[in-house]
Amino acid sequence: MRLLVATHNPGKAVEIAALLDGNYDVVTMSDQNLPEPDETETTFCGNALLKARHAAEASGLVALADDSGLSVRALDGAPGIFSARWAGPEKDFSHAMAKVEQRLEEIGSDDRAAWFTSALAVAWPQGPAVVVEGLVDGTLTFPPRGDRGFGYDPIFVPQGHDQTFGEMEPAFKDGISHRARAFDLLKDALID
Ligand code: ITT
């Protein structure tokens, strides 16, 4: 089956391709030259559905979208759905990670609990859509460690591990990540 992976984020695209494990004839957004819709919803699931529906309607293909981000407990869940926007138009994640550290310093909090969320949505053109959400808990560490992965990976240590996502082998992260958990749920949802 042909599947449009509806993301403009190369880090996500690599992880989604690995998780799909060659089971689909993958079409990318650059193949389709499709614009990014504004992420106007207020939840990860809402934005994932919005992106998948937009891509499916515009391309006529079944589309898979991911909306994801880092939530920090002491910051009431920020940056959350604004994770990409904290990096600014230059997509500077060194800046975004420093901003997380700075906000924690400003409020004088030692609480380093955080979690990643991935909402995955599949939409059929003029048809139904399904959305699921996977989470992984962890703690934040500063300064950032590791140059693998993408986004906030260098400051996030998943629960039960010592390395940050940025230090882990990509295949190892793909076995335990929020995105992997969402994929498992998506398989269940599509098969049931
Ligand atoms: P698309 O909407 O085109 O998919 P995007 O980067 O704008 O790309 P989001 O709006 O979902 O996607 O933003 C999610 C941000 O959260 C992303 O840019 C990363 O910085 C961060 N993020 C999500 N998953 C992550 C992961 O596995 N590791 C590190 N950071 C992650």
TrEMBL record:
Q: What is its EC number?
A: 3.6.1.66
Q: What is the protein's given name?
A: dITP/XTP pyrophosphatase
The UniProt family comment states: Belongs to the HAM1 NTPase family.
Q: Which reaction(s) does the protein catalyse, per the Swiss-Prot or TrEMBL entry? A: XTP + H2O = XMP + diphosphate + H(+); ITP + H2O = IMP + diphosphate + H(+); dITP + H2O = dIMP + diphosphate + H(+)
Origin species, per record, is Brevundimonas halotolerans
Task: Give the PANTHER family listed for this entry.
Answer: INOSINE TRIPHOSPHATE PYROPHOSPHATASE, INOSINE TRIPHOSPHATE PYROPHOSPHATASE/HAM1 PROTEIN
Cofactors required: Mg(2+)
Subunit comment: Homodimer.
Cellular compartments per GO CC: cytosol
Binding residues annotated for Mg(2+), in chain numbering: 38, 67
Q: Which SUPFAM superfamilies match?
A: ITPase-like
Q: Which UniProt keywords apply?
A: Hydrolase, Magnesium, Metal-binding, Nucleotide metabolism, Nucleotide-binding
Question: Catalytic residues?
Answer: 67 (proton acceptor)
Q: What does the cofactor section's free text say about binding?
A: Binds 1 Mg(2+) ion per subunit.
The entry marks the following residues as binding substrate, namely 7-12, 68, 150-153, 173, 178-179
InterPro entries from the UniProt entry: dITP/XTP_pyrophosphatase, ITPase-like_fam, RdgB/HAM1
Q: Name one GO biological process term.
A: purine nucleoside triphosphate catabolic process
- Entry GO MF terms: dITP diphosphatase activity; ITP diphosphatase activity; metal ion binding; nucleotide binding; ribonucleoside triphosphate phosphatase activity; XTP diphosphatase activity
Q: What does this protein do?
A: Pyrophosphatase that catalyzes the hydrolysis of nucleoside triphosphates to their monophosphate derivatives, with a high preference for the non-canonical purine nucleotides XTP (xanthosine triphosphate), dITP (deoxyinosine triphosphate) and ITP. Seems to function as a house-cleaning enzyme that removes non-canonical purine nucleotides from the nucleotide pool, thus preventing their incorporation into DNA/RNA and avoiding chromosomal lesions.
Q: What class of enzyme is it?
A: hydrolase
User: CDD domains, alphabetically?
Assistant: HAM1
